[in-house]
Predict the 3D structure of the following.
Amino acid sequence: MSGGVDPGAVAANVAAVNERVVAAAGRAGRDPGEVTLVAVAKLFPPAAVRAVLAAGVADVGENYAKDLERKAAEVPGVRWHFVGRLQRNKAGVLVDVGALVHSLDSLAGARALGRRAVTAGTTARALVQVEVDDREAAHGVRPADLAAFLDTCRAVDGLEIEGLMVMPAPADDPEATRPAFRRAAELAAGSGLPRLSMGMTADFEVAVEEGATLIRVGTALFGPRPTRRPGTTTREAGAPSPGGGR
């Protein structure tokens, strides 16, 4: 066991999740190879990233830019995903590590990513977070505003929009998230976007059935999440991020 992480348990969990993805894809008549498992390592140590990498999962998600930067420096060979709330002053970190940003929901964020990418001589990649539930306090672009938002983002130098991300309202029954997933899939298809990030530990099978190409899974792979990362207070650890994975 390394850093409180049991690589054998992680490997067994990865296999179990992959089996569930295959079964869900089969029910929907999909190729399971179309679905990318993103292991969300929020608050877990670098040893957790090494464990999923050893188990064959090269796509890893982080909620905090500082943690992503630190782990990227420690663990090579990872395709990084940023699934937390996008802050403009952290855009440079995300661009530098080549992370796919799942949570783009503002023009200011789009322009910040584009500027940093142009300066670095590269292209920032992002998914637009959409809000398909009727929640006033939720983050995400509303369906009625999506076309105009995408047009503006597509005009930003240094930025490539690859798809959409959705995080439905929490529900005890995974089936309750199906309408949101289906609506997000419709929006992605209508926008000509191939990638669709949706589904977490509690509902990723429903998401796969409805067309997810990326699922953000943490607890099912690593077990219960730590309440905070070493060296931080509980407040600094923060509440769950809008684009995260469980």
About this structure: The chain has a mean pLDDT of 92.
